[in-house]
Amino acid sequence: MIKNSVIALVTAAALAGIAAPAMAGTSLTQTSDSDFDAAYVLAQVQDKGISASSVEEWGDYVVASVTDAEGKQTLVYLTPVTLEVVNL
């Protein structure tokens, strides 16, 4: 009986040792597992005729930094799926 208990404890300890490294990579401060590829989205926005110099995720939108012909920089909000301009 004691031998079976020892084997069970050793097995449990070994399984806990295997699980610990897998959990070590997670962070409580990590907000999301975003797959946002800024270079790809920027190319897609530019293909739509929007002369953006950069893009980033902003909440439920994609924000593109656009410089007009006079050099004025503005932010354009886009839907993340269709990259259509959103009028806020």
Keyphrases for this structure?
single chain, 88 residues, alpha+beta, 3-stranded antiparallel sheet, 3 strands, elongated
Structure, briefly:
The chain is α+β, with helices and mostly antiparallel strands. Helix content is 38%, strand content 23%. The protein has a 3-stranded antiparallel β-sheet with strand order 1-2-3.
Helical residues, percent: 25-40%
Separation of the first and last Cα atoms: 71 Å
Label the structural class. Answer: alpha+beta
**What is the tally of beta strands?**
3
Q: Provide the residue-averaged pLDDT.
A: 76
Mind explaining what this structure looks like?
By secondary structure, this protein is of the alpha+beta class. 38% of the residues lie in helices and 23% in strands. Strand 1 and strand 2 form a beta hairpin. The protein is elongated. About 16% of the residues have low confidence.
